[in-house]
Amino acid sequence: LVQLVESGGGSVQTGGSLRLSCAASGYTFRMAWFRQAPGKEREAVAAKYTGGRNTYYADSVKGRFTISQDTAKNTLYLQMNSLKPEDTAMYYCAAVRVWRGIWYLANEYDYWGQGTQVTVSS
Fold first, then answer.
1. How far is residue 23's CA from residue 53's CA, in Å, rounded to a whole number?
2. What mean pLDDT is predicted for residues 11-36?
3. 3-state secondary structure (DSSP) of residue 104
4. Cβ atoms 1, 95 nearer than 8 A
5. What is the DSSP secondary structure assignment for residue 61, as one 8-state letter?
6. CA-CA distance, 117 to 9, in Å (whole number)?
7. By the number of CB atoms within 10 A of the CB, which of 20, 43, 110, 112 ranks highest?
8. What is the pLDDT, as a whole number, of residue 115?
9. Distance of alpha carbon 18 from its chain centroid, rounded?
10. CA 63: distance to chain centroid?
11. How far apart are the first and last CA of the chain?
């Protein structure tokens, strides 16, 4: 069982930055950030294999968001720069403990955090 605790959400203006954190309580094979805006489906934002160098991003955030990890602290981060109003959503951390092929599918992740709200105003 893995518990995930997110933090770092908040309200910023367009062009601002936020950094989200997700502390994991146990081993993870791959971790990801998803987001869900009201009335919309949950969508993948970024993912990273624990201890690996490869990172994966949704096209909508490439060049603006950076996913990273501190393995010593067992913590995943999402640095979000140049934020836009369309980035407004509840952001969730997700994890899986075994290999699954498709990083952007929500149903491939077994563990989820409670979410942290990000609001970007124009």
1. 19
2. 97
3. coil
4. no
5. T
6. 5
7. 20
8. 97
9. 12
10. 15
11. 40
Q: In 8-115, where do the E strands start and end? A: 10-13, 18-24, 30-36, 43-49, 55-57, 65-70, 75-80, 89-96, 111-112
CB 48 within 8 A of CB 40: no
- The sign of the CA dihedral 9, 80, 56, 49 is negative
In this structure, are residues 15 and 121 in contact, taking their beta carbons and an 8 Å threshold?
no
Which of helix, strand or coil describes residue 33?
Answer: strand
Q: What φ, ψ does residue 23 adopt, rounded to 5°? A: -90, 125
Q: How many CA atoms lie within 13 A of 29 on its CB side?
A: 11
Average pLDDT of the residues of the chain? 96
**What is the number of other CB atoms lying within 10 angstroms of the CB of residue 53?**
6
What is the C-alpha to C-alpha distance for residues 48 and 68, in angstroms, rounded to an integer?
8
The SS3 assignment for 86 reads: helix
pLDDT-derived band at 110 (thresholds 50, 70, 90) equals: very high
What pLDDT sits at residue 18? 98
